[in-house]
Amino acid sequence: MTSAKQPLLELKNVTTVVNDHTPAAKAILKQLNLKIYAGDFITVLGPNGAGKSTFFNSIAGTLPIKSGQILLQGKNITHLSVEKRAKFISRVFQDPKMGTAPRMTVAENLLLATKRGQIRGLKLRGLKAQLPRLHSLAASMNNGLVDRMQTATENLSGGQRQALSFLMATIQQPELLLLDEHTAALDPKTSAQLMQQTNERILQEKLTCLMITHHLDDALRYGNRLLVLDDGKIVFDVRDQQKQQLTKQKLLEFFGDIE
Ligand SMILES: Nc1ncnc2c1ncn2[C@@H]1O[C@H](COP(=O)(O)OP(=O)(O)OP(=O)(O)O)[C@@H](O)[C@H]1O
Description:
GO terms for molecular function: ATP binding; ATP hydrolysis activity; transmembrane transporter activity. This protein is an alpha/beta fold. About 35% of the residues lie in helices and about 25% in strands. It is built from nine helices and ten strands. Helix 5 packs parallel to helix 6 (about 190-205). The mean pLDDT is about 90.
């Protein structure tokens, strides 16, 4: 029974306010409660402006929460800095330019990611010894990234760059992976390919993941649990068999034309 286990991540009554203490103050997350368990691969749907990115910003610490608590494996991380949370929480954004250092090569970026949280990482020691592992990771993305290991990241295609961002975010097996529409900027074929590699890696590494998407098909096909966020609250939460039985039609009926 999942209810008896300690959640990997728990949000307790989380309220997040933007422009706090100004006349433009607005609550975006509204007393949100959620328990996420190790191994959950959760797809997150919701209309534009529902608060999905704010939800991720609150978990990652890029936006302070106004009230409530965030617990990671029972530890209160509500006031932990973004940098400290980055040791446990990885994130991939929609924009291919965001996850990588543009002037550094693919191999250097990957190596940097293996040393996340260590100061000496910046010196990139040990590149040679790590190369076989980095090569096989790049090859696993099946998109030519492995042939461009010595290429500066800024010269990659958007799909290769997102695949690299994804690898960098998962190379150290984060306790929690946040995918913020990470395939949305890619063409349909590239997006589908990255989605498939994403799924394989998450299952293989048994990662715990929250993935925001506007694609109902992806939200239904991937993961063991599906959430719908609307107006700063979780309004729908299904898992396992209930999720498998969900159809696109039922989802559309539930919250209108989200796509
Ligand atoms: N820093 C901010 N300042 C002011 N308003 C903000 C800020 N961040 C978010 N908002 C507002 O909060 C609401 C929720 O935004 P958020 O980006 O979390 O929604 P979303 O569900 O991710 O939307 P989308 O699907 O369009 O990406 C929106 O109305 C947005 O304009």
